[in-house]
Amino acid sequence: xxxxxxxxxxxxxxxxxxxxxxxxxxxxxxxxxxxxxxxxxxxxxxxxxxxxxxxxxxxxxxxxxxxxxxxxxxxxxxxxxxxxxxxxxxxxxxxxxxxxxxxxxxxxxxxxxxxxxxxxxxxxxxxxxxxxxxxxxxxxxxxxxxxxxxxxxxxxxxxxxxxxxxxxxxxxxxxxxxxxxxxxxxxxxxxxxxxxxxxxxxxxxxxxxxxxxxxxxxxxxxxxxxxxxxxxxxxxxxxxxxxxxxxxxxxxxxxxxxxxxxxxxxxxxxxxxxxxxxxxxxxxxxxxxxxxxxxxxxxxxxxxxxxxxxxxxxxxxxxxxxxxxxxxxxxxxxxxxxxxxxxxxxxxxxxxxxxxxxxxxxxxxxxxxxxxxxxxxx
Length: 378
Description:
By secondary structure, the chain is α+β, with helices and mostly antiparallel strands. The chain is 40% helix and 15% strand. It has helices spanning 6-16, 27-33, 44-50, 58-66, 85-107, 116-127, 135-143, 151-162, 185-189, 203-216, 221-228, 234-239, 280-283, 334-351, 370-374, and strands spanning 3-4, 37-38, 70-74, 80-84, 165-167, 182-184, 245-249, 254-257, 273-274, 305-309, 312-320, 323-328, 358-361. The strands form four sheets. Strands 9-10-11-12-13 form a five-stranded mixed sheet. It has a three-stranded mixed sheet with strand order 1-7-8. Strand 11 (312-320) and strand 12 form a beta hairpin. It is globular, with a radius of gyration of 21 Å.
């Protein structure tokens, strides 16, 4: 079985993630190809798409949100994702059990004794008036009936797990601040989520495997589980064995893929790319070593935005006073610094609506320090 080293996996990831060459496709097609973008930080998907698409304009994504073609909802890993409306409708039921278990993993004690079916029915009844609600408002409306859990536990269980909802604009629009207001999927999209098949088959599971490998492969089943939050989809993977190809990584893990997808030569040059916080190019894997060194792995879960140089996380970045601020995690060559500055200048122009193209290199945050991990300027 062919062994793919870390550099070969890196180049495959960059190609599948549209980070090796910017793609000439509409933003809608990119969101669909990527299986969504993690979006609990509302402005981050704009940077994710800017780094992946040629000529991307922020207004395009805002228009998709207001036009109801893409939506913000809890889905993979119980985190807020920006996905196409069609994918939410097709995938939401398949994620429901995982969503419940993840909320219970945090609030099991508070929700002890609560009949979740009754809670769901009461929540749906309230929201059926099609009046958008925040989590706090909905929880307070039900607190008289369920006073013990507290509003946070009630709200999380209702809106992150039990009831299929979307977060409405202006939340998630370009350079727009807005609190989270939720509406039923049925009222916002005019259609309920697809039910799970009664015969126990798992077409959605197989579709998720294909979509994941298309945008993230070659990958191990542990990587698939890390991306989706689902338990590895073993039955779906087993059913698809005949249509997949296999490799090994340097640790001996089996890597699955679909035939005919890009696996560029490991020597392929990789351009500088600026990634947003929590980008799935990193979080979409259990083994993140194909993109980020173990010494800096913690950056991927603290919300640090990273800069890829030669395909690997080599700096973190922020945006302050119209300037992109870059803090290297290692010493840059003169050529690397120039390439980072050029890409950073273009990003500053995008983020400032073309008012500024300034880049500043900040060496005040020592690589690997807590300040680098948490500070937006680092």
